[in-house]
């Protein structure tokens, strides 16, 4: 009898494991994507799907190609079951089959490295909701050790990184985008061909004398894995732009007391700073950062997104807006975003860039606390929103007061002056501030520690 009972137990266990495996494969088939290969069962596609399509938030299956995976600082997905076991199984499959060699295209390898690097950093910085909630230290380390090994196998050589395309130039050359703002067709997004021109109308706000990157909030949100650059253009041209920047810098009272402006700061930019004219444009450019197969951080020419704000008017209504559309109208601004889409990038279509539609929705990780930080049954947990319409929440103030990086234009920062471009200097996408900043972060230190203890490839 005991032998029969033992056989029955073993049979039930085997059946249970088979059911779990079949359900896992069914889940992968249901949420299949074809980002890296035409076959949805390709291991690279399975890994992408496991990372970006969350079965605890069903709506993510309709957004399998967001710029950033839907993980926030208190997310437990990939750490609790069954998602943790499923991800470990896929990561192990990737490692055991040496799937890093399955695709040699540097562009695809760079994108997968980018996305897995983000998952690694998230796992390091992730915090429980309360002290009563599990910290998942064991589960985090299980993910991190596997991710570190895959990241090492995917890392490109310096020569391969050098070969990556300047996709912004490709997007401009495609003719798919307007070249400038059209007040008659305000709905049409545009990409300025002269945005990075050393003598053109666009001037980069560089934060001279500041070891920190300019767009601190954006840069910190993505832990230095992207470089964020800010450009400004006044309607009268380059000289007028520099003249305005000098006027702001020379303003006699650039700051006012503000103990609650930000942690550790007791002053805020003066709301009466000199105002720029209507027609002024600002652009925020996000560019990819990678590390090579020697573990060295490297800026790349790949543009991940371009966000542009055009100030049609500086007049604002004193009446509180009743919804986002009214807030946008009252701001006097037109908002645009053109961002990277992986299938378009791999197909060499317009540099992989595509305009975001005003009502296009997704789960965004910037400026959004995330559904995992609140009630899982809440509205935010189950429904995405239009990120383009949310820009006004942080940038709805009149004129210069909507520019959150305006503090780098004030004393004691060095005054920006127009200088002759040094053609022998660094390329436009390189920034010496990225490397030392990232090297001080806990996520980078842990990744390097894991690399050090991994067996030789």
Structure report:
The protein is α+β, with helices and mostly antiparallel strands and 457 residues long. The chain folds into two domains: 31-154, no CATH class; 161-438, no CATH class. Helices cover 36% and strands 13% of the residues. The protein is built from 15 helices and eight strands. The strands form two sheets. It has a six-stranded antiparallel beta sheet. A hairpin with a 5-residue loop joins strand 5 and strand 6.
Would you summarize the structure shown here?
The chain is of the alpha+beta class and 457 residues long. It has helices at 2-30, 43-52, 83-96, 106-125, 137-154, 158-162, 167-173, 216-221, 238-249, 324-331, 342-346, 379-382, 387-395, 434-439, 442-453; strands at residues 203-205, 226-233, 255-262, 265-269, 281-291, 297-311, 333-340, 353-355. Strands 1-2-5-6-7-8 form a six-stranded antiparallel β-sheet.
The largest sheet has its strands arranged as 1-2-5-6-7-8
Mean pLDDT: 85
Tally the structural domains. Answer: 2
| Tally of helical runs | 15
The shape, in one word, is: globular
User: What share of residues are in beta strands?
Assistant: 5-15%
The helix/strand order is HHHHHHHEHEHEEEEHEHEHHHH
First and last CA, distance: 52 Å
* Main sheet record: 6 strands, antiparallel
Going by helix content, strand content and strand pairing, the class is: alpha+beta
Number of strands: 8
Specify the helix fraction band.
25-40%
Using only C-alpha atoms, the radius of gyration works out to 24 Å
């Amino acid at each position: 009898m005991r032998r029969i009972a033992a056989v029955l137990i073993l049979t039930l266990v085997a059946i249970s494991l088979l059911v779990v495996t079949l359900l896992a494969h069914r889940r992968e088939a249901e949420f299949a994507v074809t980002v890296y290969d035409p076959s949805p069962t390709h291991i690279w596609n399975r890994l992408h799907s496991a990372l970006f399509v969350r079965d605890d938030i069903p709506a993510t299956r309709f957004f399998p190609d967001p710029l950033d995976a839907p993980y926030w600082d208190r997310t437990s997905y990939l750490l609790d079951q069954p998602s943790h076991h499923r991800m470990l199984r896929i990561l192990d499959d990737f490692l055991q089959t040496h799937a890093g060699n399955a695709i040699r295209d540097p562009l695809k390898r760079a994108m997968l490295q980018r996305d897995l690097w983000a998952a690694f950093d998230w796992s390091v910085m992730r915090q429980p909701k309360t002290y009563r909630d599990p910290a998942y230290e064991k589960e985090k380390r299980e993910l991190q050790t596997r991710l570190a090994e895959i990241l090492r196998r995917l890392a490109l050589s310096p020569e391969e990184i050098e070969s990556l395309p300047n996709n912004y130039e490709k997007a401009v050359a495609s003719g798919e985008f307007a070249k400038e703002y059209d007040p008659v067709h305000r709905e049409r997004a545009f990409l300025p061909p002269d945005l990075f021109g050393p003598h053109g109308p666009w001037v980069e706000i560089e934060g001279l004398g500041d070891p920190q990157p300019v767009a601190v909030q954006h840069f910190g949100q993505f832990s230095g894995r992207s470089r964020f650059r800010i450009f400004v253009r006044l309607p009268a041209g380059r000289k007028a732009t520099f003249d305005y920047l000098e006027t702001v810098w020379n303003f006699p009272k650039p700051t006012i007391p503000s103990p609650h402006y930000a942690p550790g700061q007791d002053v805020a930019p003066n709301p009466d700073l000199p105002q720029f004219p209507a027609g002024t444009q600002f652009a925020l450019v996000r560019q990819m950062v990678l590390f090579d197969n020697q573990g060295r951080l490297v800026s790349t020419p790949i543009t991940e997104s371009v966000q542009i704000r055009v100030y049609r008017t500086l007049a604002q209504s004193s009446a509180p807006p009743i919804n986002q559309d009214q807030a946008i109208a009252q701001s006097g601004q037109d908002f645009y975003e053109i961002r990277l889409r992986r299938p378009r990038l791999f197909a060499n279509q317009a540099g992989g860039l595509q305009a975001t539609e005003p009502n296009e929705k997704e789960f965004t990780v910037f400026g959004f606390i995330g559904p995992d930080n609140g009630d899982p049954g809440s509205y935010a947990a189950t429904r995405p929103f239009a990120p383009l319409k949310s820009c006004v929440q942080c940038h709805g103030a009149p004129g210069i007061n909507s520019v959150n990086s305006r503090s780098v234009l004030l004393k004691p920062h060095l005054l920006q002056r127009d200088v002759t471009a040094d053609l022998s200097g660094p390329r436009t996408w390189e920034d010496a501030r990225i490397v030392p900043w990232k090297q001080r972060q806990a996520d980078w230190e842990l990744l390097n520690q894991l690399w050090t203890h991994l067996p030789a490839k």
